[in-house]
Design the sequence.
């Protein structure tokens, strides 16, 4: 099975470099990586071009000019450009464990989307991770992470679960299998059928709203939060505003109440 991975980024070269190292060392070889860039400075392009010269899989850069927070728009540009039928969504601050793409590939199924989790790190641990730690897998080991910062129960559960326990934990968790920005996947055809992301939405819930429209269309979520593992590097969130949160919550409430599947504010600017 061939996979397209779409990772969003904005002016975060140090973190993106670590993420690219993670995708250099995946156990699943049949994938491409598309960096969906919300208007980063030239240094981001230079970083991607440098890696692309010897990257083990196709590495592509999709960019638009910086005009404020427009992540959903650049993702909607990237989705139709994906070369393969199945798409994994993540962020340019989430380092994938070496089996990350493989877990998504092995659990992809018709009529389903996958909901993974992430292990949120503090700034100290985020800065401590080097290329060797990613290549060796040390940065996904609890012992190493504990030496660089306190790890909460959620991180301990995800990183400490082995191959036997992880499926059981995914089956019994009370966490909802929602679509999220760090670690989710879906069929390209299903994403096109709902017209991708709602571009009216800013930070705070656009991925969940997309997942809710998938569910309204009959596509059910499957939980893989303890099997598909990535670590989330710390960063500021200056783009978060109370106004955007309120607006997004109103859009999500309408999506649920009216069981909306198609957004006219998506990939195609038209009505259903």
Sequence:
């Amino acid at each position: 099975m061939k996979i397209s991975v779409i990772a969003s980024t904005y002016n975060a070269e140090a973190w993106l470099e670590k993420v690219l190292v993670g995708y250099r060392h995946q156990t699943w070889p049949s994938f491409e990586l598309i960096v969906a860039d919300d208007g980063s400075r030239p240094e981001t392009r230079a970083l991607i071009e440098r890696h692309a010269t010897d990257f083990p899989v196709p590495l592509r850069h999709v960019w638009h000019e910086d005009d404020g927070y427009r992540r959903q728009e650049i993702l909607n540009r990237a989705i139709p450009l994906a070369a393969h039928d199945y798409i994994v969504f993540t962020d340019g601050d989430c380092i994938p464990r070496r089996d990350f793409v493989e877990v998504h590939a092995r659990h992809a199924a018709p009529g389903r989307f996958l909901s993974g989790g992430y292990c949120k790190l503090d700034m100290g641990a985020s800065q401590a991770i080097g290329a060797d730690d990613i290549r060796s897998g040390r940065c996904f080991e609890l012992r190493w992470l504990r030496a660089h910062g306190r790890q909460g129960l959620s991180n301990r559960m995800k990183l400490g679960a082995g191959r036997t326990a992880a499926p059981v934990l995914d089956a019994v968790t009370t966490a909802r299998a929602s679509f999220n920005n760090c670690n989710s996947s879906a069929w390209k055809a299903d994403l096109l059928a709902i017209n991708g992301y709602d571009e009216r939405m800013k930070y705070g819930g656009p991925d969940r709203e997309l997942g809710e429209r998938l569910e309204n269309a009959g596509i059910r979520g499957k939980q893989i939060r303890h099997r598909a593992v990535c670590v989330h590097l710390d960063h500021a969130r200056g783009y978060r505003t109370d106004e955007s949160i309120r607006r997004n919550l109103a859009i999500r409430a309408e999506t649920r109440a009216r069981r909306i599947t198609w957004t006219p504010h998506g990939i195609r600017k038209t009505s259903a």
Q: What stands out?
A: Residues 203 and 237 are 9 Å apart (CA to CA).
